[in-house]
Design goal:
By secondary structure, this protein is α/β, with parallel strands linked by helices. It has four domains: 113 residues, no CATH class; 300 residues, P-loop containing nucleotide triphosphate hydrolases (Rossmann fold, 3-Layer(aba) Sandwich); 242 residues, Rossmann fold; 165 residues, no CATH class. 37% of the residues lie in helices and 15% in strands. The protein has 31 helices and 27 strands. The two termini are 55 Å apart.
């Protein structure tokens, strides 16, 4: 490939744009001439370079970062509204660019008009106001690290810059006189860079004055260590890791985490250099290390030392924050470590009232939410009981009045179902930020074709994500082992073949693929992992990839699968034209895999296996392995280089299933090689989760921003009603995280729902009979008809019809028992929705006419049967409808004909009984009558999965400010 040679002035341009990015734009070309020592650069030169430069060019990336920052800035000097073409034109004018450069910049770096979604209360804009006065050493060095070491493009860095600023500006000003606590939630996508976001937030928070940062990392050590190393490497840096000592010092070496780390010795860890010598730049002290979660010192002395240069002023005064170190503790959500952290905080006593603290809760929907049933505890002596981790987090918040809590998750349902009325819990009362999809991310959308209409056209690998990336599984490990083994062997072959293509691209494009992994996930049970690992090892031995038989299999897979997909989706990367051209690289891939005798690595919670998991250290060495596991590979942990996934595990909760999608993430240089082997049912479940996730985000988008009075259209407490559930068997989250959740809308397809929770008050019963019961029965025919019943024994019904709006007008007048109204409301809400959009057109009325029962003469109905019904003890409602009767008329809701009623797709069924309660005294009169109703929604009305179930949360009314979009 021809390599573009950048002009000699581009390093100067990078430095210039780096300096300009934090302030206001000014004339670019004269400044660039000065930076190059007098060499003039014309606008034509600049335009030519912008057109030709590589996307990974550092100067181009920095220009993109600067432009994105100015596009989004809340700036008095750039009067136009942020993220508009008018704002961009104002920036070009400030830069002095009026020739060809603006048009080329607009094409290469368009204004990113779609922003993160922010639902927020009002806040003081301290961070924006003080931007020019505070240091930004840690943020600027982190930004440069992402650009220069990790190869991030300018668009990705600009997106991270903006998103992390959205978080920090909503935290409390660390220098404010009165203590203020903030609680927020950041919602990303699975494997989409949430760690990068909270690392950026941490960098900016330390620059701004926060002096204790606690990062909670989930419940497993392997994840905590991964987060520790990443923050050490990208943010904390060499000087802070050495804590001022020299690397050659024996005492320092004894405590050094990274003595054998290849990246440490290759200078891949960020270095802050002389910047740390500035008086207003704090050192960072590590309260945890790579191999050590939080532990108290042996003497029981607190690790934390916060000094005050001016003892007449509080710790959080600017003069004192500038002179004291910032501590970073990366702690897993485990009771022992958190307890020791709290024990070290308590001796600080009054100093804690002045200490700006930031708590980052990664995977905030795991362990952090309180899963005790508050309702059941209210009447017991355990009313104050909380689950262990929730209690510890709340204790830290109670100790630290200036603590800011920010949760991070891709699956927020457990967090938004927290009781918003409980002020001491972790509901994100101040803000919820939904991050936009980052550039280059492969998520559920890239593996599904939701919203695509083929119109008779056959999907191909060019047009269909499903055709390109999905390979369906049929063989069951327990019932059809031969098919399962054949499919698993194909997945292993795909892994070897994709590894060979990576080696080909390394040799011919200059790309580098340090890791190449495959995931096998069939169960969460450790006993099953051993069986699966042995099956993979056995198939690996049988595969014989170096023999003619193995090569023939690989060639067939290359020709039929990989070659067509690569040609359609290579995105500019090289592909081998023939299998023979690829053959030498297959050997290289196999050599990489066979460095260890065992290509399989089991990753689970078994301690013996964990002790041997150095091979899974993605940072220390290359990992070319097949990973077999469960929970540890399903939540938070990043599987680097993942290319082929063989996935069978079914989960009962949406968040658990979504988090298991480790194949989501960034696949730079090999997006076309990614394959997912999965059963069709699970694939469709992920599709339903995509619908639910996009619905949640779309609903937030509707209500973000301010109204005409500059007040938020929606507050975080209004978010829970936006949670939907598409699949009946897949609840949003675990049952013990949904004690506050209630269903607000439910279609209840496929059968009858009884509405039998009627009141006991005689007055209410008479109102129901007069306004609803009798008028409804009068819409039926006066002559009963016979319909087929159980075993063809005919049943007698009086039938009729009523328009859908007319029925709803009646039902809206119906009175229910208060406790049952809550249960019926979701169904009635759905009936309104489906009627409004035309999916329910008509209702068939079916009034059962039994023989051998009491009869009464009623005006407008004649002499009609009346059945006896007794209320159920304790429940207060009546027993359900007779299944024989329901089955006899259900055909009407299925779009079929019955008696004289022709088929109609949008027709539901209301089944009715005229009844009385024999518990009363004497013979029944018309005042004792009531009508029991059951409804069956027409099947055609439930044509969309998203119509099925919507969830909200129970909370005191005074806590739920109902705000509507204008």
């Amino acid at each position: 490939m021809q390599t573009y040679i950048a002009p000699a002035w581009t390093p100067a341009l990078r430095n210039l744009m780096t300096g300009m990015a934090g302030g206001q734009p000014f004339e670019l070309l004269p400044a660039l001439t000065a930076f190059t020592g007098g060499t003039p650069v014309s606008e034509d030169d600049l335009a030519t370079w912008i057109s030709a430069a590589s996307e990974n060019d550092a100067a181009l990336a920095q220009m993109r970062i600067a432009l994105a920052g100015w596009d989004a800035a809340e700036s008095a000097d750039l009067i136009s509204a942020p993220k508009t073409q008018q704002r961009r034109r104002a920036v070009y004018e400030k830069l002095g660019l009026a020739g060809p450069a603006p048009a080329i910049l607009n094409e290469r770096m368009p204004v990113a008009e779609e922003a993160d979604i922010v639902i927020s209360t009002d806040f003081t804009k301290w961070y924006d106001a003080a931007s020019s006065e505070r240091p930004d050493v840690y943020w600027s060095h982190y930004r440069d690290y992402l650009r220069d070491q990790k190869g991030w493009g300018g668009e990705a860095i600009a997106s991270l810059d903006e998103a992390s600023t959205q978080v920090v500006r909503r935290l409390s000003d660390p220098c404010r006189a009165d203590a203020k606590r903030t609680k927020g939630l950041v919602v990303g996508y699975v494997q989409s860079g949430k760690t990068a976001n909270f690392t950026g937030v941490t960098a900016k928070a330390i620059d701004a004055g926060y002096r204790l940062v606690i990062v909670l990392t989930g419940t497993i050590e392997i994840l905590r260590a991964q987060t520790q190393r990443r923050m050490d490497m990208e943010l904390i840096g060499v000087e802070n890791i050495l804590a001022g000592g020299e690397e050659d010092d024996p005492d320092v070496r004894k405590e050094q985490d990274y003595l054998t780390d290849e990246d440490w010795h290759r200078d891949k860890f960020v270095s802050h250099g002389a910047a740390l010598e500035q008086h207003n730049v704090p050192a960072i002290r590590r309260a945890t290390t790579l191999h050590r979660d939080y532990r108290r010192l042996p003497e029981g002395i607190s690790q934390f030392r916060f000094s005050r240069a001016d003892k007449s002023k509080p710790l959080n005064a600017p003069v004192n924050l500038q002179g004291t170190a910032a501590y970073v503790a990366i702690v897993k959500k485990e009771k022992s470590g958190l307890k020791q952290l709290i024990q070290d905080l308590k001796p600080l006593k009054d100093r804690l009232k002045e200490l700006p603290v930031l708590i980052i809760d990664d995977e905030a929907d795991v362990a952090s939410p309180d899963t005790t049933n508050r309702t059941s505890l209210k009447a017991t002596t355990n009313a104050g009981k909380r689950t262990a981790i929730n209690e510890k987090i709340r204790e830290i918040l109670a100790l630290c009045p200036r603590a800011q809590y920010v949760g991070y998750t891709a699956t927020p349902y457990a967090n938004v179902f927290v009781d918003p009325g409980d002020e001491i819990d972790l509901f994100p009362t101040d803000f919820v930020i939904s991050l936009r999809r980052p550039p280059g991310y492969m998520g559920v959308q890239e593996f599904h074709d939701v919203g695509t209409s083929w119109d008779g056209e056959r999907p191909t690998v060019e047009t269909s994500n499903e055709e390109a990336h999905i390979r369906y599984l049929e063989g069951d490990p327990e019932e059809d082992e031969p098919t399962r083994n054949r499919e698993l062997l194909e997945a292993i072959d795909a892994w070897v073949l994709s590894g060979a293509v990576k080696k080909y691209r390394e040799a011919n494009e200059g790309l580098s693929f340090k890791h190449h992994t495959m995931l096998v996930h069939e169960s969460v049970k450790t006993i099953h992992h051993a069986d699966a690992a042995e099956a993979v090892r056995s198939l690996w031995k049988q595969a014989a990839h170096s023999t003619s038989v193995g090569q023939a299999r690989l060639k067939n897979l290359f020709v039929k699968d990989f070659q067509p997909v690569m040609r359609a989706r290579t995105e500019g990367h090289l592909i081998p034209e023939t299998f023979e051209e690829l053959e030498p690289y297959i050997g290289q891939a196999l050599q990489e895999i066979r460095k260890d005798t065992d290509p399989v690595l089991v990753v689970n919670s078994d301690k013996e296996i964990q002790a041997n998991q150095k091979a899974l250290d993605f940072q220390a060495d290359k990992v070319w392995k097949i990973l077999v596991g469960g929970t540890q590979l399903s939540r938070g942990f990043t599987v680097e280089g993942l290319t082929v996934s063989y996935y069978r595990r079914k989960a009962g909760q949406a968040d658990t299933l979504m988090q298991a999608g480790r194949w989501f993430g960034f696949r730079q240089g090999y997006r076309d090689l990614v394959r997912l082997y999965i059963p069709a049912e699970l694939y469709r479940a992920f599709e339903a989760l995509l619908i639910d996730e996009e619905h949640f985000r779309a609903e937030l988008r509707k209500f973000e921003g301010l109204d005409e009075n500059d007040k938020p259209l929606m507050l975080p407490v209004n978010i829970p009603p936006k949670v939907q559930q598409s699949l009946a068997w897949l609840k949003p989250t675990a049952r013990n995280k949904m004690y506050n959740a209630v269903i607000t809308s439910e279609a209840s397809p496929g059968g009858f729902k009884d509405l039998y929770g009627i009141p006991t008050s005689p007055t209410a019963l008479r109102k129901n009979l007069t306004a609803v019961g009798l008028p409804l029965l009068q819409h039926t025919t006066s002559v009963p008809v016979q319909v087929p019943g159980h075993r063809e024994s005919p049943l007698s019904f009086r039938l009729g019809t009523m328009s859908a709006p007319a029925l709803l007008q009646m039902l809206d007048k119906h009175i229910w028992q208060e406790k049952w109204a809550v249960s019926y409301h979701p169904t009635l809400k759905f009936l309104h929705t489906a009627t409004d959009d035309g999916r329910i057109k008509e209702w068939a009325l079916a009034w059962h006419q039994p023989e051998g029962v009491d009869h009464m003469t009623i005006e407008g109905l004649g002499t009609v049967p009346v059945v006896k019904r007794s209320r159920r003890e304790r429940r207060g409602d009546f027993p359900g409808s007779d299944r024989k009767h329901a089955n006899a008329v259900l055909a009407l809701a299925q779009g079929k004909s019955l008696a004289d009623l022709p088929p109609l797709a949008g027709r539901g069924v209301v089944m009715a009984y005229l009844a009385y309660d024999p518990a009363g005294s004497g013979e029944p009169t018309s005042d004792d009558l009531f009508v029991l109703l059951s409804v069956a929604v027409p099947n055609a009305a439930v044509r969309r999965a998203s119509d099925k179930i919507y969830w909200s949360v129970e909370a005191p009314e005074d806590k739920l400010q109902v705000l509507t979009a204008k």
